[in-house]
Design brief:
Largest sheet: 4 strands, antiparallel
CATH topology of the largest domain: NADH Oxidase
Distance between the termini: 47 Å
CATH superfamily of the largest domain: NADH Oxidase
Structural class: alpha+beta
Number of domains: 2
Length: about 260
């Protein structure tokens, strides 16, 4: 199948699809209509299909993913709503004894998969732990690894006292990883986790970045095995998830931004 098919009765030859193609896969013909200039460089981002207001173009690589292009929102939330949401998000380290359903976790990852990735490579992979006991097991393995290497001694001491400072007793966990060869794996996973985090907060969940587990997952075979990380892959981040025990009523200040204007 050709890279694109155009419904010429619908196409207005306005050049939107060509202008929005980030890779140069499309060009305009003599009449301004879209043609495939270099199909090999198309990364299936879907810009050409999504930007067309006339539903006049089909990209075979986008269609191959399955499903139709869904409608976009008609208007974005007001800046004060978005800004308040972003500023008010807090890292949650105390959770209610309430599970997070598999359905909810799957819904969150369904949103997070729309996060941008370098060259639309979509190399982010997920490990999801929806069981509090399994999260506790991972916390114990992480604690043992840190105790063995002598790092974070204060957290190890707290663990011995029955206080989990590694995964905070969270009822669920989401971890991202990519193949070792993924050039932008860390950035892609970080963006995807941020998407998931914000989607979770909007649904009444709390999150906290699981940096200690991430560190252990790339250094301890026992943690990797418990997570099921395939050989040749790197864990780039994780999020604890659960329903917050408390609600934060204020937004603490932050340091002023350090900006170098050029």
């Amino acid at each position: 199948m050709d890279l694109i098919e155009v419904d010429w009765e619908r196409c207005k030859k306005d050049g939107l699809c060509v202008a929005e193609c980030p890779s140069g896969a499309l060009a305009a013909d003599a009449e301004g209509g879209p043609v495939a200039a270099d199909p090999a460089v198309c990364n299936a981002c879907g810009h050409c299909v999504a930007v067309c207001p006339h539903d006049a173009i089909v990209n075979s690589r986008v269609a191959a993913v399955g499903g139709d292009v869904s409608p976009n929102v008609r208007a974005w939330p007001a800046p004060e709503v978005v800004d308040g949401f972003l500023r008010g998000r807090r890292s949650i380290r105390a959770y209610k004894d309430k599970p997070v359903s598999r359905e909810m976790l799957a819904e969150l990852i369904d949103v997070a998969r729309f996060a941008p990735t370098a060259s639309n490579a979509q190399e982010v992979r997920w490990i999801v732990v929806p069981d509090k006991d399994k999260v506790a097991t991972l916390a114990g393995l992480t604690a043992a690894w840190f105790a063995g290497n002598g790092q974070r001694k204060q957290y190890s001491a707290m663990w011995d006292q029955g206080r989990d400072y590694f995964l905070r007793g969270a009822p669920a966990l989401a971890v991202t990883y990519t193949h070792d060869a993924a050039p932008f794996g860390a950035a892609d996973c970080g963006i995807a986790l941020t998407f998931l985090e914000l989607a979770a907060v909007s649904r009444g969940l709390g999150t906290c970045w699981a940096g200690l587990l991430t560190y252990a997952a790339n250094g301890d075979p026992a943690v990797r095995q418990a997570l099921g990380v395939p050989d040749g892959h790197t864990v780039h981040g994780g999020l604890m998830l659960g329903y917050p025990k408390t609600r934060f009523m204020g937004v603490p200040p932050r340091n002023p931004a350090v900006i170098h204007w050029v």
